[in-house]
Design a protein that fits this description.
The complex is a heterodimer of chains A (113) and B (116). In chain A, 0% of the residues lie in helices and 46% in strands. Chain A contains no helices and nine strands. Chain A has a five-stranded mixed beta sheet, with no helix packed on it. Chain A starts with 8 loop residues before the first strand and ends with a strand. Chain B is mainly beta and 116 residues long. In chain B, the strands form two sheets. In chain B, strands 2, 4, 5, 6, 9, 10 and 11 form a seven-stranded mixed beta sheet that branches. In chain B, strands 1-3-8-7 form a four-stranded antiparallel beta sheet, with no helix packed on it. The radius of gyration of chain B is 14 Å and the shape is globular. The chains are: A mainly beta (113), B mainly beta (116). The interface between A and B is medium-sized, with 25 and 27 residues.
Amino acid sequence: DAKTTQPNSMESNEEEPVHLPCNHSTISGTDYIHWYRQLPSQGPEYVIHGLTSNVNNRMASLAIAEDRKSSTLILHRATLRDAAVYYCILRENYGGSQGNLIFGKGTKLSVKP
Amino acid sequence: NAGVTQTPKFRVLKTGQSMTLLCAQDMNHEYMYWYRQDPGMGLRLIHYSVGEGTTAKGEVPDGYNVSRLKKQNFLLGLESAAPSQTSVYFCASQDSPGLAGSDTQYFGPGTRLTVL
């Protein structure tokens, strides 16, 4: 599986936008880019995913570079509840395979009031 | 709709004791997974199941066994617990490939296990 590189930690101020980067220079054409986050003492939760085009949902936006070698998760207005570890994960369209997620260490986001 | 639930939430074992962790999901998902998470690390796959009656090894299966007798339940067993198995255990489930929403994996709240 292709690997991702994320900063260990980032800080943000409450109600400001946050841009969380992820590098995936060895991404293949069939890899989807997924983001999960893990709030303190909880299981991971799905945030967003995309393949080539930018994606928006109620939680966040995902901006994917044209060459797909990097992506950015955008939280438009950070709240204290957004303080979590954010994982950028590549997944093949897993028909027939085991479909598990391969987690790195992620980026720990701190949000200051 | 409870999603994915895990029991127990916490457990302390002595070395050599055995226990079973229970994962249950009410979303009729085919795929289920057991992960472990050690401090400061991402999750690692222990075992997984792609359907009732089937199980397979993941990245770190040694010292664990699993069973999937019913579609909604996935059990993780430790036959002889060791201090190296002190960790937080997460269960997850997802749909089969090709179904709507199949890209999303749903996680339980975790079981914090300490082996003394």
